Every structure is written in structure tokens, then in C-alpha cells.
Amino acid sequence: MGHKQMLLATVVAATAALLQGCVSSGSTNESGIMFPDMDSAYLKEGTFVAPDAVLRVSKGQNKDQIRALLDIPQFSEGLFGVREWNYAFNFYTDSVPKGYVTCQYQVHFDDDVLVESTHWKNEMCADLLVPVEAAPVPESTEERVRLSADVLFDFDSDVLRFEGQRSLERVADLLVTDFNDPEVRVLGHTDRIGNDAYNQRLSDKRANAVRQVLIAQGINPLHIQALGMGESNPVVSCAGESGAQLKECLQPNRRVDILINGERQVSAN
């Protein structure tokens, strides 16, 4: 092959790599998803992002919507035909001396360039966004995991968001590892905006959606009850508020309570 032919072949190969997305060295997470090395990031120290922006990432969003939420990817992804975007986000936490941890996050797009899935390099990063903790219920033998419906679901929908799905997977893990065959009640709650019948139906659908995820994660379906509570059991009233202020004030009422009645497993340590 002559010098000009070799040069042309090199240019063609480089152009193809640019169009399809650059392939760089990296490592896989527990699910086998490849993540690029942090050394290849534009911002090697990561960037701080509002947790709510990551929570709002949902299936079917386009690249413009993801860019508006998360900004541009911090790794060299190529120009056209790119099916994944990679980010490095910093989240505040008291668990490390420097006060924050850096988490790699990946968005996958389908053939229509719409969000298909998202992934964390370290799955523990998801717990920084949506902590899952069981706390005793006052004057009861039950314990409760309380999750915001705004985190779990798309607006006015019973379709789970990515981080909502992950949080419920961790709830299922907690039920398996911390309790001996517990009885579980899933209670869906809405705010008072809208009519009673609609809110009741929405809370029913959301409670059942949560139940189905727990069953899919191996929890005995005979031991899980799903109940929609509608707007009947608010934790805040927000008297005198209206419009956007009312919706924000009523946020604590939009929730899913997972009530656990069972004996805690005794640690082997």
C-alpha cells in the first residue's frame, strides 16, 4: 500500500470512529456495562448536579431534554450515531472526608435516539439520590419505608422513573436481608389537587405498580397488599396556598408508604 493510500485509510478510520463515537479504555460495573476511565473526561474532578435533575430523567426523553437536565456529556462521545452519553456527577455526603463523592452515570439511547435506560458505575450512588430506610411507626409494631411519589413516578402517571425502579429494588433487598418473611402493605397517597375519584384511581395504580416491582424482585405475592388511599391521609394541609406554591407545599402528601410487619433477622456478627 502506498503512502497516500495508507494516509487515506487512516483518515477514513478516524472519521468513522468520530462519527460512531470514540471507543476508549474503561471498566465495567457489576452488570457488565462499560464505563470510560475518568482520565478521559473533560472535567476529571466531575461536576455538581442538582439531584432532582437526575431524578427527572425518564424513558423516552430525547437528547435535547437530557441536555437541558444534565448539560452536555463530560466524555468524548463522537458526533453522530452516538448511543450513549457519559457523565461524572458529584453528590454531597457526610460519609467521606471531602464531603462529596463522584459517581459515573450513563444514558443509553435507542434507534430513535430516545432514552432507553440509564446506569450507574457504582450502584451505591443511587442510594445517595433516594435513600431507602425502614423506620419504626409510632404506636405500632410495623416499620415504614416512605418514598416520594414525585421521585417514583412520572407526573400524573403510574409509570416508574429509573431511580424509582432502583429504589424499589433496594426496598426488596431490604425485605429479604433484614426481615424474616414479613407481611407488607403498600399504600399509595396523592395530594388534594384534582377530583377525589381520579386521585383514588391514581393512588390505586401507583400502589399496584410498586407491588408488582417487589414481586418481580422475589417478594412473596401472598404477603404483599396494595391499597390506594387517594387524598384521604394527608401529612400537610397548606391552608391559604394556591397555584404553584400549593403544588410545592403539598409535595409530602404525594407519597408511597411501604409498611413492614415482621421480625428483624438477627445479625450473625
Task: Give an overview in words.
It is a single chain. The protein has 269 residues and is of the alpha+beta class. The chain has two domains: 18-127, no CATH class; 135-264, OmpA-like domain (60s Ribosomal Protein L30, Chain: A, 2-Layer Sandwich). The protein is built from eight helices and eleven strands. It has helices at residues 3-20, 51-55, 63-70, 124-129, 149-152, 162-178, 196-216, 243-249, and strands spanning 26-28, 34-36, 47-48, 84-92, 100-109, 115-120, 135-136, 143-148, 179-189, 224-228, 255-264. Helix 6 (162-178) crosses helix 7. The longest helix is centred in the C-terminal third of the chain and has 21 residues, at 196-216. It is globular and about 55 Å long. The N and C termini lie far apart (68 Å). Mean pLDDT is 88; it is low at 3-23.
The CATH class of the largest domain, by name, is: Alpha Beta
Radius of gyration: 22 Å
As a percent range, the share of strand residues is: 15-25%
Instruction: Describe the strand arrangement of the main beta sheet, using strand numbers.
Output: 7-8-11-9-10
Helix-strand string: HEEEHHEEEHEEHHEHEHE
CATH level-two architecture of the largest domain? 2-Layer Sandwich
Ends distance:
68 Å
* Discrete helix count: 8
